[in-house]
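Entry 14. Ran structure prediction on the chain below.
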Amino acid sequence: MTTLIDRFRHFLDASPSPQHAAANAASLLEERGFSRVDERAAPVALAAGGKYYVHRNGSVVAFRVGSRPAAEAGFRMLAAHTDSPNLRLKPNPTHVKHGYVRLGIETYGGVLQATWADRDLGIAGQVALRDGSLRLVNLDRPLARIPNLAIHLNRGVNTDGLVLNAHTALPPVLTLDTEAENPLQQLIADELGCDAEDVLTWDLGLYDLTAAAVSGLRGEFLHSARLDNLASCHAGLEALFVACDGDAPDPTAVLGLFDHEEIGSQTSRGAKSRMLQEVLERVLADGPQAPGGMSRALANSWLISADMAHAVHPAYGDKHDGDHMPKLNAGPVIKRNANWRYGTEADSSALILALAEEVGAPVQWFVNRADLGCGSTVGPIVASNLGVRTVDVGNPMLSMHSAREMCGTADHQPMVDILRAYLQGHGPA
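Output, structure tokens:
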């Protein structure tokens, strides 16, 4: 049997783009008996205990109908995101300079740009074809590279830092000058087995080809691309599957994996869209009709927003508040910010603490230094849209937003355990 970390590594390696992550999640849901809802069709009957999901491109919302009407028992919602900072290809990306064919890119999200240099890069995402179809593409071989300038020509790099201009220095080398008008278009066509003129356009990004690896003297670390936030996506899926093994609890369990968190979520399928609310409305519409059903349901509901947290760095401990310094392999982290960059409050913190105590999981706290700005995630977005009690949690990690990140192998299981108990309806009502 595969271990949890084996499954985690496989999910990371198989998900080089948000579209691949959502497709892999959908495939796993199908294997576990979840049925896809056709959003264009009339609503289907939703039996108590029934398992369903909605799939929009890079986002998936899965749910298991509770044993009691949602208006009475509410929802246990869990949200994470499928996207990660990376380099995205432009519509007309190929250009020639000094005999090299390079790929024009845009940075997506808060990329640690220097970490992308001198890496073997593949290309993945989706392609739009002339017949109107969208096809997933994963060119998982060394195709592109962003070469560093030799230290002899950049003497101050080790003291001044590596600064790469996104427009002039980050475009990777694809090949040497060629007579082909659009070598990337032909490369994609060959991969899909179609004519080059049938490839109309794409949503493609670069990714580091190095596979996820367990490391450290005792196997205590995991190194991979896209830990932020595929780690939370995978933990949520594992928790949902275990939670669905027995009889349906009273509340309806909902798992939302949303694209576009790294750029603000304000898209057709991001956490700021109507996607989640439309799924909740679909569940309510199938139950007993009553005035104020949605308001009653949300008043009985919780949201856990799961996104990775900043572990204390061995060389930069002064960047943390000394009393809130999460460590790798010391357990999941509750994230709190007085200005609501996280959606955590006392009652929602108590929910996580109660669940952690029940399953025997350690818990840590993260609060930013008061003199540093704080990041955010989908928790406050969903909380403000739905008016639901919310807590932001995540496992600690290093190298966040790098082309290759790092977390602890001992933290994944406790997070799954907490989320499983939550989806099963445990903890405060």
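The longest helix spans residues 227-243. Will compare against last week's run tomorrow.
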